Amino acid sequence: MVYGRNPSRRGVSRCDVLVLVSLFWVLAPAGLYGLQKVRLTREEISSANQLRHLAVAFHDFYHDYGLFPTGGGNAEQGRAFQRDNKFERNPPLGGKLPEGAQIIAPPGQEWGWAYQILSYIDMNDVFRNPDDDAVRQTVVPLYFCPLRRKPGANEKNEKGLRLGGIDYAGNGGVTGPMKDARDEMLRNYVPPFKDFTASGTVIRSSAWYPGGQRRAISMHNVLDGTSYTLLLITKRMQTNRIGKNPPNDDWSFVDGWGNDTIVRYHPEDSNLQPAPDSDNPVPDFAMGSASRNGFLVIFADASVRRLRYTIAPETLAAIMIRDDGVAVRPRDLE
């Protein structure tokens, strides 16, 4: 599949949705979060609003293509395109789309979700830019959490590039079997395709990942329900390396399956327990926040919550997985 013109939309437009979302956040932020018995700061509300915009982009993408954006296939790669009915990809750095090339849509695209939705957050010119390095050096304000930093490019890396960072990550599911889980469904869980990179909502998939061209997620594949399955999560950052190309923010928002744009979890891995930002190095795929109060997440139904860092590990695992059948109660998330 290649990207083409967006099909004409019926019913409520994206503009209408964004206006309603904006009015909602202006008029009733306290009411929304009253359900969680917590009070968000102004910066948290701003970050939550950004997450909702990203969720709207995911749903608009789904409306057009019938599948969710993917996590891409491989980290630190060039953009995938189609030319003369063949799938090709640019080199990791310095690549440019050849004349007549068409950008490959997921599930074949090597670049990840944050690139795939650019046209749905009013960044179509960036999406279409034929210069890969120009794209990865673009600062996308919506990708920066107000709790953590202002939008801005990283300092120059060893290649002389100032990459555009990102603070939000797709739900990449769990990292492996949970043999010690108390819940039988978690303990016996077998992921789709027998691949744990397909257990979340933002799955690993590209024309260069084994079986990737056949891997895509629709609403029907979120068997646990969109209200109890995570979509996007704030990732943890090393505070004294922000803007300095740390390992989980050194390849730009375009990155395919890697810890720049994906978070994962395992209830038995102490390194992956959610935690606030600190000066300590961040484990691969770890989630967290600049806030000491908890970390913001958005579910697949576009509802935003602040989760506490002490959330029960098996509850967090259950909402990371889209099809484990584990029942989660609202009070489990408070």
Describe this structure in words.
- The chain is α+β, with helices and mostly antiparallel strands and 334 residues long.
- The protein has one domain.
- The chain is 21% helix and 12% strand.
- The protein contains 8 helices and 10 strands.
- It has a 5-stranded mixed sheet, with helices on both faces. A 3-stranded antiparallel sheet has the order 2-1-3, with no helix packed on it. Strands 7-8 form a two-stranded parallel sheet.
- Strand 9 and strand 10 (304-307) form a beta hairpin.
- The N and C termini lie far apart (41 Å).
- Residues 5-12 and 19-38 have low confidence and may be disordered.
Q: Helices, strands, pairings?
A:
Layout: H1 14-27, H2 29-34, H3 42-65, E1 80-83, E2 86-89, E3 102-103, H4 113-116, H5 124-128, H6 132-136, E4 168-174, H7 184-187, E5 230-234, E6 262-265, E7 275-276, E8 288-289, E9 295-299, E10 304-307, H8 313-320
Parallel strand pairs: 4-6, 7-8
Antiparallel strand pairs: 1-2, 1-3, 4-5, 5-9, 9-10
Helix pairs in contact: 1-3
Low-confidence stretches: 5-12, 19-38
Counting helices, strands and paired strands, the structural category is: alpha+beta
Order of helices and strands: HHHEEEHHHEHEEEEEEH
Number of contiguous helices: 8
Residue-averaged pLDDT, rounded? 90
Strand order of the largest sheet: 6-4-5-9-10
Count all strands and give the number.
10
Please tell me how large the radius of gyration is: 19 Å
Please indicate the count of domains: 1
Largest β-sheet summary:
5 strands, mixed
What percent strand? 5-15%
Span between N and C termini?
41 Å
The shape is: globular
The helical percent reads 10-25%
